[in-house]
Amino acid sequence: MIQAHEERSLRELKEIIQQTIKVRRVTLSLFLVMALYFRFGAGLNFPLPLIFSPLMWGLITIPFSNLIQSQETKESLNNIHFGYFLLEILILTYLIHIIGGAAWIGVSYYVFSILYVNFFLPSKKAWTLTVLTVVFFAGISYAELAGLIPHWPIFEDDNELYKNSFYVTTTVLAGGVGLYFTTAYTVQIFADLFRKKNESLREREFKLQKLWKELISVREEERKRISKRIHDQLGQTLMGVKMKLDILYMDTEDPRLKEVQDLISDAISESRNLSHLLRPSMLDELGLAPSIRELVENFGASSDVRFSLSLDPSPGIESEERRVILYRATQELLNNAVKHGDPSTVKIELQSSDSAVRLSVEDDGSGFDPDRVARESGLGLKGIQENITIAGGDFSIDSEEGEGTRAEITLPLD
After folding, report:
1. Is 75 among the domain residues?
2. By CB neighbour count within 10 A (0-12 exposed, 13-18 middle, 19+ buried), where does 146 fall?
3. Residue 234 lies in a domain
4. What is the pLDDT of residues 102-139, one digit of tens each?
5. Which of 141, 252, 306, 346 has CB atoms 3.0–4.6 Å from 102's, for a disulfide?
6. H-helix or E-strand containing 302?
7. In a domain? residue 243
8. What is the pTM assigned to this prediction?
């Protein structure tokens, strides 16, 4: 179960990163559109690489997105993310250089990268990239100041602030060290609080699932015990009484004994049905599909409804809890369909794949309003929803009044 939680945590982290990639693509597209307008529409004098850079920046998100999806551990995911951010701040450094370096507001371009880095990456990697950002920015600023690289002014009336050593140093210290380090520290504090809160919720969920598993196990064991006692003790006792009555009736042929015999026979039949409803022995001995088939046959014998079955003979469910959940859900859904829907046909499907099993129960009955029933129903549907949710699956009901009902459950195999 711990491994499952780690896999789920990794999957959620990947989803968040993929969302940030989409945000980056949108913002880079806007930046590119504005750059094209200012360069060719407004006629600003800045070099064409200012257009190509965000385009290249956006293109590297494509292999990065694929790499993110293929990672199987958080460590490898963080390493890939670190490499992407390193490329990102290198591209930003080049962008800042070609729009005026320390002489313009390019220092602010790093801010979003700093936010992302310090939110997603471990502290050591985040601080490494933050320091590298300051080093890169200071490097191009002092390189322009020393004349080691050319200064590319974005405006024609450039006041040559890049030649002022006091201005450059102030920009590096205030904009670089001050802004980036303060942002990094603040974001890491909030990210740490977020992670701790998230871990606390995960721990609660872990304990809840463990408690749920124990509850299912205890409940089913109790059902087994009661079912066995009804079958072995009450059933045998009633059978003994019937045998004695049979002998007595053969001697006396008293019609009143015949009536008692019939009542005892009904009681024996009812005890067998009750024992089976509490815990079908077939579920333990033969598995889920045969148990559902037997369940449907019993419903068919006691009603005029026509049932259609399509069952995977070996759905591969090793977990006893999941077998019980699906069996009880089928039992409840069939009971609701026959009792409340007044259908002529009910279709049951059980399909499995490598990772999940899907159960659907569909009828052509009177249907209902799912929202109203969710508010007013008892423990039946709510119990199904609760069990499926805690087990990590999905439960949906599609129904309209007069249009029949379709209930579908998708449950992971492990």
Report:
1. yes
2. exposed
3. no
4. 777 777 778 888 888 998 888 999 999 999 999 999 99
5. 141
6. none
7. no
8. 0.56
